[in-house]
């Protein structure tokens, strides 16, 4: 009997199918990119946020070329459904990210949605936004076996490195 492991095989799919069809998928991604530019932090299902992240970063890359670049203006005009945000993209966001070579967004997982689908949720935000920072949950790793062994080793090395008083001298 042959056991098989379930693998994520794409079978020619390059991207996630997020809606009813290709037009629906594009509309959804355009609305998410527009919301991200407007609010600079949005909450969305993980798959949608992760898929949208690349498009938002590419749009900022084009915006860094300047508003005189024809291709950058066409990309902004296509991806931003609210045309008043084109000014914000070129005059606020592009100068903010000008010195940075890439990675303009941060994607953090948050607790799953409480409705029936229990979808995996995420917060995606532009780096350097004026909003208060999100607190990343840190696991308490002090109690893991490896860290306990390392702690004991460090204490032992500290005791050995401490100056020893010669025998016969009062302490």
Q: Spell out the helices and strands N to C.
A: HEHHHEEH
Low-pLDDT stretches are: none
Class inferred from helices and paired strands: mainly alpha
- Order of strands across the main sheet: 1-3-2
Query: What's the count of strands?
Result: 3
The helix fraction, in percent, is 40-55%
Summarize this structure briefly.
The protein has helices spanning 22-39, 46-63, 70-79, 85-97, 145-161; strands spanning 41-45, 105-110, 121-126.
Give an account of the 3D structure.
This protein is mainly α and 171 residues long. Helices cover 44% and strands 10% of the residues. It has 5 helices and 3 strands. Strands 1-3-2 form a 3-stranded antiparallel sheet, with helices on one face. The longest helix is centred in the N-terminal third of the chain and has 18 residues.
Quickly list its features.
single chain; 171 residues; mainly alpha; three-stranded antiparallel beta sheet; 5 helices
Write the layout of secondary structure elements.
Elements: H1 22-39, E1 41-45, H2 46-63, H3 70-79, H4 85-97, E2 105-110, E3 121-126, H5 145-161
Antiparallel strand pairs: 1-3, 2-3
Helix pairs in contact: 1-2
């Amino acid at each position: 009997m042959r056991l098989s492991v379930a693998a994520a095989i794409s079978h020619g799919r390059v991207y996630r199918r997020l809606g009813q069809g290709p037009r629906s998928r594009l509309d959804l991604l355009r609305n998410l990119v527009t919301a991200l530019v407007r609010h600079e932090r949005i909450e969305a299902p993980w798959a949608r946020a992760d898929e949208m992240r690349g498009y938002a970063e590419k749009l900022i890359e084009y915006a860094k070329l300047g508003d005189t670049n024809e291709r950058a203006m066409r990309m902004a005009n296509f991806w931003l459904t609210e045309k008043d945000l084109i000014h914000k993209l070129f005059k606020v966001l592009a100068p903010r990210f000008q010195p940075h070579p890439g990675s303009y967004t941060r994607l953090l997982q948050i607790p799953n949605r409480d409705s029936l689908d229990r979808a995996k949720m995420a917060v995606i935000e532009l780096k350097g936004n004026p909003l208060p920072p999100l607190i990343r949950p840190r696991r308490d790793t002090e109690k893991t076996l490896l860290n306990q062994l390392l702690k004991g080793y460090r204490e032992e090395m500290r005791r050995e490195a401490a100056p020893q008083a010669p025998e016969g001298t009062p302490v």
